[in-house]
Amino acid sequence: MRRGETVFIDTGAWIALALSRDPLHGQAKAQWRLLHEAGAKLCTSVPVVIETFTFLDRNTNKSVALTWKDILYKPGTATILHCELRDLEQSWDYFRRRDLHKLSAVDATSFAIMKRTRIRVAFTFDHHFAAVGFRLPG
What we know:
The chain has helices at about 10-20, 25-35, 45-60, 60-70, 85-90, 105-115, 125-130, and strands spanning about 5-10, 40-45, 80, 120-125. It is α/β, with parallel strands linked by helices.
């Protein structure tokens, strides 16, 4: 990963960062530190924010979800990218691929958003990102 490169943060990474009991929490924290040390420009998307908040709210409690939202909205944490109609329309193409089993609609829209904004690196624990050609940091 190049210094100052833009990195897209996926739902799984946010959840692992937010929950100390998550099995990937330690790995996520270490990656977060490395991204900051590399001066990465961090971003995520509206669909990822909705998915992460919903997961935290349903699987922990509203307080945890709201605390995560407050951290996300602090200046300098991450830029939140919009999902445009063309992103949604492009995302359907990923469901025609036979190699992407159990792909979520949020992941498919993330791929479209990343392509549109020319982001090549994803902080994720989801193999689908690498399967469609995105790099993982490190």
